Amino acid sequence: MPKRHVEPRFTRKAESKTPSQPLVARRSANYQPSLWEHEYLLSLGNTYVKEDNIERVMLLKQEVSKMLNETEGLLDQLELVDTLQRLGVSYHFEREIKKTLTNVHVKNVRAHKKRRDRWEDLYATALEFRLLRQHGFNIAEDVLYGNIGDDLDDKDIKGILSLYEASYLSTRIDTKLKETICYTTKRLRKFVEVNKTENKSYTLRRMVIHALEMPYHRRVGRLEARWYIDVYGERHDLNPILLEFAKLDFNFVQAIHQDELKSLSSWWSKTGLTKHLDFVRDRITEGYFSSVGVIYEPEFAYHRQMLTKVFMLITTIDDIYDIYGTLEELQLFTTIVEKWDVNRLEELPKYMKLCFLCLVNEINQIGYFVLRDKGFNVIPYLKKSWADMCTTFLKEAKWYKSGYKPNFEEYMQNGWISSSVPTILLHLFCLFSDQALDILVSYNHSVVRSSATILRLANDLATSSVSHGFTTYNI
After folding, report:
1. Total domain count for the chain?
2. Looking at the domain assignment, is residue 293 inside a domain?
3. Same-domain status, 31 and 87
């Protein structure tokens, strides 16, 4: 992800086009070497992708599928779906889960129309509400509050925790849910404070502390799965089949991810970008980790690898604009990216030549695979997204070098594109369908712009807190 402007620390390096020209001082962000050396990544081994383990996983998968189909009680069904999600194995059962939740939603609508309370406890009501919203069902907050009433039992920590988690799935039109976050947070903090020693509430206390740090809805799925596997193993009511399946599946998927990371590390090394552009961030492992956070399922291997390459190219180009390039070089680079003209390669400085040609090659390769597999040409859209992003990078470089401080509105008008979110989403969703592409090419689409705005502000807040960071334009 792009990291905003850094303090001007001048390196000892300098460049000159001819002996008669003055030396050009270059800035440095003082990025530390990667913690994950290429040789170390290649040494990673995982023995879980063996035929006997694969056979065991498939057998357990059949058992879990049978559970989903045979579980009858509505609350039992909801708890099973929630457990599968938290254990990170729900992707195996998308069809069964959709069927289950559709039936739950239909019954919910019928009960609401008849003004009947479907649940007697807060926990079940909030769990149903959260799962339905997580899976895109249209369920109003009135359904939740119509069932639980106004008076809540402060001793019902399990129910309050469930309501707390559900509250974070509020929409713009919800009012009560936002108020509920404050209410439930206070009561959960009080519970943690009172129950400091290990007792029968230990596992529940651990869940509460975890939720207060960050609600489930906002967590990275793979990290949450690894954490919850341990927690689930401590429960007295655990299902040994689910636990074994989750452990084997996690290790199996991790082995796939490790092999992909090895391949990407080799690609990154072969590009020569960190060798010839030693001022850029060497963060292939972190880039791949971000991709896994977006889409981790084994069948999306190409999507992850493509997305990681896009991440690395974005950070490389961002560092060129933020750190190393002169304004004259950046203007020329932006123009050539806009024209997508390889014939003008010789006009660029050496370090920019390598970067631009690597960009062109990777985008053309993505375009080839999409044309081959999906039947439509995405290269014009991808080229425009890179040109638009570089244009915003250039504007921010001009602001910085001239000392200009834009107001908040002007900054965000440029910043939501420079966040790189429109570019990233375009590359990702063009691999799925042309319908998704039609939506995303409209930069004014609210989903794209809202996501980009959130990342832009979060990125700037994070950057301003690090030791070498530059507070973004003092907005």
Report:
1. 2
2. yes
3. no
Inside any domain, residue 50: no
Do residues 355 and 320 touch, judged by C-beta distance below 8 A? yes
Average pLDDT of span 9-13 = 42
Note down the domain range covering 216. Answer: 71-238
Tokens standing for 379? 């290269």
Residue 289 domain flag? yes
Q: Which of 238, 269, 304 is the last residue of a domain?
A: 238
Do 313 and 358 form a contact (C-beta atoms < 8 A)?
yes
Q: Would residue 60 count as lying in a domain?
A: no
For residues 123 and 182, membership in a common domain is answered with: yes
Please write the tens of the pLDDT for every residue from 417-437.
999 999 999 998 888 776 667
What are 185-214's pLDDT values in tens digits? 999 999 999 887 766 678 899 999 999 999
| Burial annotation 132-151 (CB, 10 A radius, 16+ → b, else e) | bbbbebebebebbbebbeee
Look at residue 153 in the predicted model and tell me its pLDDT.
Answer: 72
